[in-house]
Design brief:
Length: about 220
Amino acid sequence: MLKATKINKSFKEGTTKHPVLIDLDLNAEPGEFVAIMGASGSGKSTLLHILGLLDSPDSGQVIINGKDTARINNRAKDKIRNQETGFVFQFYHLLPELNALENIMLPIMIKCPAWRWTIEKPKAIKRASELIELVGLSGHAKQKVTTMSGGERQRIALARSLANNPRLLLADEPTGNLDSKSGAAILDILHNLNKNGQTIVMVTHDLNIAQQAHRVISLIDGKFQ
């Protein structure tokens, strides 16, 4: 499902080079729930962005569903991001001008050629409606996301990440911006998805949350411990 080998990443500050990730290896098998735990600034979000093809390593290899992402062009990477992986951000990244259902539909709209959208739109609405029900917010489909609570926004963001049935779900501190009750609701949804076969890689700074995964990996000073 996911294999990362010898991942290195550094950032420059003036003439100084700061290593963030050092020779990291990571495998996630189909249906596995992996948690990567680390303190703020440990590089865990940087790693997740690399795994989700939102950033590139300085060196190393990321293989997703058998595809070596270093050997494919940007269009092929875009397709993987849109159709084979789903990404849940700590701060939601929803479009404020759209309602909840429209936000969930966005990945489907991006996947669809413009000339086919009129034909495919009813299917997209049906899929988005199923997902908003899955996260327990079917009564909020037409609500603008700017009027929702943090927990509700994160559930909409989670539903959006599932729009194209990705085989791999990447979650970046999905409960980090939420109160304990809202965070527990997000974790319940992730657990139910995983029970149904969804592969999940999640980063968190919270040990209690990390321990709910099948496997916990600690990231300290750019290295796995």
